[in-house]
Amino acid sequence: MAVFSGLVRRVAAEAERQVRGGIGLLVRLSLEHERVAELERVLPAYGERIRRLEETVRGQDAGLRALRAELDSLIAQLNDRMLPRVDERMDDIERDLAILATGLIRTGKESAESTGRLDMAERRLAELRGKLAQMEQRAGLWRELQASVAQLGDDVDALRGRLAPHAPAGRVPGAPAPAQ
């Protein structure tokens, strides 16, 4: 019977443990029931909030769609008004740039030609300045020669004046003798 009494004790201990576990489960279920009751009481309020949020979102969506349609319309109008003019302006600008580039190229060529002409004119001017210096030098020499000739003439006249009373008639002093 000792085996039987040990077995009874084990069964009694297991039954007690199961009863205590069941009581704990009942306590938890009663707490859960209170939470479920609380959630069931709050659930309609959340449902109403969700419904209002959905309506607000639908209203905002409709407003955004209307705004998007209006923006699309404005963009289409701007494109209709601006794009043809933009193309015209771009064509005008391209034409103006081509004219400007052509003018710059011509100016560059003319500038190169002008530079060549200017260099040639500067060389010619340098030559003329050299010739002018030579002419001034020659003119100075000529003036000196004229002054010397005039001085010589004065000296000859002075000599004639001094020799004239001593010279025979008809003979010019300093003149070569007549050939015979």
Summarize the structure.
Keywords: Coiled coil. Residues 36-70, 118-145 form a coiled coil. The chain has one helix at residues 2-163.
Structure commentary:
This protein is mostly helical and 180 residues long. The protein has 1 helix and no strands. It has one helix at 2-163. The longest helix is centred in the middle third of the chain and has 162 residues, at 2-163. The protein is rod-shaped, with a radius of gyration of 67 Å. It starts with a helix and ends in a 17-residue tail after the last helix. The model has no long low-confidence stretch (mean pLDDT 82).
End-to-end separation: 209 Å
Instruction: Report the portion of residues in β strands.
Output: under 5%
Secondary-structure-derived class: mainly alpha
Q: What is the global morphology? A: rod-shaped
Structural features:
180 residues; mainly alpha; 1 helix
List the helices and strands and how they pair.
Layout: H1 2-163
